Amino acid sequence: MNSYFSTVNSQLQTDQVTMLTRILVVDDDTETTELLKIILKPDEYEVVATTSGQEAVDLARNLSPDVMVVDLLMPGMDGMNVCREVRKFSSLPILVLSAISKPGIIAQALDEGADDFLIKPTKNNILIACLNRLTRRARVEQDYQKVEGNHYRMV
Prior knowledge:
Elements: H1 2-18, E1 21-26, H2 30-39, E2 45-50, H3 53-63, E3 67-70, H4 79-87, E4 94-98, H5 103-111, E5 116-119, H6 124-149
Parallel strand pairs: 1-2, 1-3, 3-4, 4-5
Helix pairs in contact: 3-4
């Protein structure tokens, strides 16, 4: 019995080590998306960027990113609507990265489905730590679902 759990645990750890973290970034400011591509090391993160809220929703549905980073103020579909639409079909972790600092707007974004909120500008190490935390949480949930799908329950 112990060898089975060792095998499952080993496989889960291998899956986590070999995967790049795929981050979907949506911000109408291309300078921000380009800066995020530089900040997030290419050997650790795969960054897919778009300036369109609707395209971000489509990419979230078809690309299966690990985390989504969303700005709130965008023409067309804004970040609140992106969060709302993505939540209709996915539990993908969503980080709002916005210059808005009003507590009511932050609370609304979290209520609409965002998992966390950082105010621009933010320190690179805080952004990376937040993305890592959201990714870890999502992968643990995915691993739990994989194991439970085979009728084994992690305890």
